[in-house]
Amino acid sequence: MVQTKESKTMNIDDIKRLPLDILRNEWEKAWGKKPHLRIGRVMLEKSLIYKLNQKPNSEMEKRLKQLIKDYKQNPKCFDERVEALKPGTRLVRNYNGVKHNVIVKEQGFEYKGRGYSSLSQIANEITGKRWNGWVFFGLKKV
Prior knowledge:
The protein has about 140 residues and is an alpha+beta fold. Helices cover about 40% and strands about 20% of the residues.
């Protein structure tokens, strides 16, 4: 069962029985634009069923809007995001003959059993100097 914007519930058979002109109108209501004249009946039916089965996810929409806002403010913002690294990823860096392991966590990083919010904090601790953590661990080129 799928529900149209007018709260009419239609099942897949109802959609398949719609006359083509009404099918095209329902498709336009669901997608917010006219379907191309060359889109065939089967594609109209399948894409209408898909669209009507989509459930709005407000959390996902909020996240997407925030990502768009971030990108508009700084198109390079995605280059330095922790989200680009999957939790559980191990970063390894040899520095002055010592191997340093960092584990990416859901919220930040872990180094020597302690939590950090940025790679730069860890790089500074390792070297004693100010570093861009992404550069230090080879994740970003200078």
